[in-house]
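We treat protein structure as text, and this decision shapes the records that our systems exchange. The tokens are whole numbers drawn from a learned vocabulary of local backbone shapes. Below, we set out a record of this kind in full and without editing:
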Amino acid sequence: MSEQDKQQETLLEFPCDFAIKAMGETSEDLDQIVVEIIRRHVEDISEGAVSSRQSSGGKFTSITVTIRATSKPQLDAIYQDLTSHHRIKYVL
């Protein structure tokens, strides 16, 4: 399958802004873990691109990072790395 065929498997047009949300149990370093994983695949994360929110009970935190996505394989690799980390429970 050619790179052009792979690009057509998604409705997204690259490059585009894309928000990635990762959730895990609340801890001081969860946001740092998420950002470090995403930085493996993205050249730059702009200021203000990271936000976090605790669940109503405070047990879980969601971290949202908005990136400039360049391809579907890039997004697939980010999702794979995030979901394979033991501290991250869900990725949207």
The helical segments are 3-7, 30-39, 72-84. The radius of gyration is 14 Å. The chain has a mean pLDDT of 92.
